[in-house]
Amino acid sequence: MKTTVLLSHARHPVSDRPQLSRLEAQAIALAAEVDEAPSGLHAGRNETGVVAALGHGLTALDRLDLADTTDPLSALAAFLTRQRFDLILAGRRGEGGHETGLLPYRLAAILGLPILADAVAITPGAAVETLVVDQAMAKGARRRVTIRLPAIVTVHPLAPPPRPFAYGPMRRGTIRRHPVDGSANAADLDTAEERPHRLRPKLMRQSAGQAAGANLYVDPTPEEAARLILAYLEANGIRRYGPLNDR
Amino acid sequence: MTATFLPWIVVLMIAVAGVQIGRRLRLWRRGQPAPVDWLGGLRALPKRYLVDVHHVVERDRAAAKMHVPLAGGLVAACGFLLIGLVTGLTAWRFFWALVTLAFLAMTAGALLEIRRRYPRRLARLSGGSWQTFPFALIAFAIASGLSALFATFGNALPALELLTLILAAVGGVALAATAAEGPMRHALAGATHLVVHPRPQRFGGGRSTELKPLDLDAEKLGTETPADFAWNRLVAFDACVQCGRCEAACPAFAAGQPLSPKHLIADLAAASAGGERPPYHGNPYPNARPVGGRIGLHAPIVSAEGVIHPDTLWSCTTCRACVEECPMMIEHVDTIIDLRRFQTQERGAIPLKAEEPLANFRGCDEPNGRVLAERTDFAAGLKLPVIAAGGQTDVLLWLGQAAFDLRGQRTLTALIRILTAAKVDIAVLGADERDCGDLARRLGDEATFQRLASANVAALASVRFRRILTADPHALHVLRNEYPAFGGTYEVVHHTAFLAELAAAGRIPLSPLAGRSITYHDPCYLGRYNGEVEAPRRLLDALGLERHEMARSGKRAMCCGGGGGAPVADIPGDTRIPDLRMAQAAETGAKTVAVACPQCAAMLEGVTGERPVVKDVAELFLEAIEAAAMRPAEAVRALEVEPA
Amino acid sequence: MSRPRRDPRAERQSHDVGATGSRPRYDRSQPLPGRAGVPPIVAPARSGMTTQPQPAKPELRIVDEPAFLVFAVVEAPGGRLSRFDRQVLGAARLLADAGDGGAGVVAIASHSVEGLGEAGADRVLLFTAEAMPGTVAKALRQTVDALSPRHVLFAETGDSADLARRLAIALDEPLLANVEHLTSRQAVRAIRNGRAEIAATPPRLISLGEDRIKPYEAAPCEARALALDTAPHNDDPAILSVEFIPGDPASLALSETDFVVSAGNGVSDFAAFRDLATHLRATPGASRVVCDAGLMPRAAQVGASGTVLSADCYFALGISGAPQHLQGIAGCEHVIAVNTDLHAAMIERAGLAIVQDAQLVMPALLQLLRGGER
């Protein structure tokens, strides 16, 4: 199954050094499940960050030589059309650009391919040219979808962790650089309204109004304690256990 | 008859042994080339054997009492006989008396060896051919001794003499025949190993504990198969005498993790030969993971199909207790690191939890993904200048990983307070201090280590200082012993030594912390790796503390379990290493365990339940300063340490 | 008291305008004079089928003729609104009530959901369950065309996020994804690895980041049911089969589960503990001491050195609450603690704290739960 993984412009949150996105590294691990020699595809001026993908399981890396400010959509679409991959994997949102997560969907629209989101596992289907994709759903549920190939699949963070990095294979991996001609079909990304990011705190997870001792029971009987616990679980919508015998 | 034949029996034995060891020699030659000073090695052999090896053997008195007459008798007797053969001394009766004496000594040694094995052998010894070996020794010794005795007193009983000679020949050849795969191999390979040892610097009182840099442009990184080992490493595996001292000292083995250094070395010796995996008669790996057992010079060693399970490899804390105990001078830790290097760098086969710090190193030069510039945040209220490029200081304080950890910060805060009180001119690198790379290197990620080392060496080159001070023995070891290979040679001092200097100089008033019983836990990377066991004790004594020693202390101290990436690899065992060590500390009755390493502090503080308090020596020192400041001036005296 | 069951099929039938042709046509809305461009919402034909306002809350907030509409797509797994769903509804409410207000929030769900009114929904629009996002997107697009909402809000997770993108492609409109700050005039999202941000007037399509916008907490809304004029059904030729596999709490990873029951030093009967976890339908966890002792596998360890949880609820049995352990449950909204020590840190942290021997409470809980299954 000829597979490629789209690699974006991730940077390390602490050092700001270019690096491979963790989600895309997870995508590589999935790709390696169905393809012995998966490749990666990156659009950018250099491969400083994404070269690590070769140490995480890719055997080759295709780089479309594009400025970071150029919208890579048309160049990627053209390359993917030429290469005819069976499977194109990507993270839910590419990193380092506008991070809208729309690119895989745009590519799907241009290439006329089906797209599935949030894969945590992929296996070849029973029939040829099919793929079984497990999608992550809430509360640990999975949706197992059999899809006809070729297709685009995005990967969920709950997919298995990336394969540990190995320096040797990275050194031996193939890097193919592809010039992209014609700025005619490449629109520049809009950078006009950008401003420095301001860190905003997230909402607190702890439920409010939990003053110490507000809900404290000292030495209740075990039965009473059990009833209190189940009542609390049901009242807060954690679980529902149906009618209990001694209510 | 004896005079004619006994020397020739020795010649026959040497021939058989030669043929046998020749088989191994051919194997050794298939290892990787290694630079060896043959002449120097050969010249140094007697001294290495009689001084360095004996020094280790002697730690087990019973073993020394056994080995000196046994090996001495055998070598002397065979030596005499060969000399006799060449010089014609065999006609002289006194000569035979000498030979008889030598064999008598050998008999005594063999008897002692039998005592170690019967009725029950010591737990750390191996069975199998090792168990029957002393009988071959004693048969040869008695038969040859009797023959020599006959020769001493003339040809009295020719029939009996013939019988003893035949017995001597059979026993001798049986002994010599074990030179390839059996117990006698240790003598020949062991002697060879002493000549071609990969770390000749460690003999004659020297020390050589730094890991050697790996050529990152090499075809293959690290060791996959026996053939990837340097040839003199293959010799080392064959030198193993399976005495099990390494196993008895191994903290991972004690905690029930699947590692026994002895088993590992035996496996490696077996792996290079190929064919059927020979039986192993020592203790199995604790909670042994099943492996396929496929061996061969070119077969992968560490894998589910090979001989060594990955969990065995990742259980090691690199504490060097095995190396310290090994009478054959085998370098177990080098071997484990070589194997890890291949697993990490070529296969990416590293425990997932251990990959996290490595990923963080690649991302931001810090194992927990912290911001380097925040390393000094804990010292906000303290006097801790950050040195700029081109700046100058007397003492450069290397903060290390501890600066990001609450427990480590307590130690560092105490240390900085002391230095401020003593008016020591200190500064730190600030954001230019990257992790020293110890963890990356021990986990086999040499590429990351070399990158960090080069960056740190460059940062250190941009400032001027007299010496580096650190409270982290791991950083100390790397900076002092491993950075020279990357162009950085520094005088690095551990805070225990530095504080001992301060106390000795009497520059700070100290009030004795009398009446407090403590025990000192030696950090592996300070004691065994760097031989510094005196200064911390001098310091603790200077603080007036009542010091109790644990059964295992100094260079033979047991590890806390925190080194070599073992905590991140987290291979399950029956218990945890720090729990074992803390129990040993509690046994002394001391109420406080004094530590000198942030890893040790973290590991030992992680022990739950009733236990002694864990204090870094810097914290104790600060207590003594503060106690002095509280007391009336006349009661204060500057404590002095006797000159060492 | 049980609510009358809705019958979407019958409701749809009642709106059939009986047009000729192969496709059935439904008419649900008529233009309302005076409010150009905003189609009004017609109450469902059979009022008896709608969710009844609860009599206990008379201050029900009713928007009869919304000035405009804001769609909020909710996932509500198991028919219950998640915290994130409430935040999406809260954001929709915020946009609907801005300025003159008077707008209506339409919750869009794929199955019936409790508590939508309390969470701020004026109207409820149900798609039939278990349709693939591609199919739902088509139906949603038709609904958007028909009702012209001013905003459509999504949660930046799961099928909602998927749907948001499919709708953006279908409408050829921009999507402001993963918004982390929202007011009626401005929506802000981070870009370039969090180095920069973009602020914009809230566009039509917005997906929200988690824990960014407060849920709605004022007077309950009506949550009047709307019927849908198209029933989505999977017709994508590339999708060959779909199978739903429910999550099994017992085998879930700690990082993924919503409910963890965890054992510490105060638990000695681990067979009973595992049994209890099964009956509570919770994922079993443990403190470090328990894992060190080999009583539970290492993978079950909760805390800074084990797994850091994102579960909604943490039930600690006999765990005193070492700092490292508490770091691991910092993200848990609800904490229940059973411990013999009144002064344990875990008792302090808990929303329900019971000072009692965990070994005694476990059998009592089991008995209660077993009884409940009959």
TrEMBL record, chain A:
Gene3D superfamilies: HUPs (3.40.50.620). Residues 4-193 form the Electron transfer flavoprotein alpha/beta-subunit N-terminal domain. Keywords: Electron transport, Transport. InterPro entries: ETF_a/b_N, Rossmann-like_a/b/a_fold. It comes from the Bacteria. Pfam families: ETF (PF01012). The keyword Phosphoprotein does not apply. This is Electron transfer flavoprotein subunit beta.
TrEMBL record, chain B:
One of its GO terms (molecular function) is oxidoreductase activity. InterPro entries: 4Fe4S_Fe-S-bd (IPR017896), 4Fe4S_Fe_S_CS (IPR017900), Csal_0991-like_N (IPR021872), Cys_rich_dom (IPR004017), HdrC_iron-sulfur_subunit (IPR051460), Helical_ferredxn (IPR009051). The chain crosses the membrane at residues 6-22, 68-88, 94-112, 133-153. Keywords: 4Fe-4S, Iron, Iron-sulfur, Membrane, Metal-binding, Oxidoreductase, Transmembrane, Transmembrane helix. It holds the Pfam family Fer4_8. Residues 231-261, 306-335 form the 4Fe-4S ferredoxin-type domain. One of its GO terms (cellular component) is plasma membrane. This is DUF3483 domain-containing protein. It comes from Jiella flava. The lineage of its organism: Bacteria, Pseudomonadati, Pseudomonadota, Alphaproteobacteria, Hyphomicrobiales.
From TrEMBL, chain C:
It comes from the Bacteria. Residues 1-55 are annotated as: Disordered. InterPro entries: DHS-like_NAD/FAD-binding_dom (IPR029035), ETF_a/b_N (IPR014730), ETF_a/FixB (IPR001308), ETF_asu_C (IPR014731), Rossmann-like_a/b/a_fold (IPR014729). Residues 1-15 have a biased composition (Basic and acidic residues). Keywords: Electron transport, Transport. Residues 70-244 form the Electron transfer flavoprotein alpha/beta-subunit N-terminal domain. One of its GO terms (molecular function) is flavin adenine dinucleotide binding. This is Electron transfer flavoprotein subunit alpha/FixB family protein. It comes from Jiella flava.
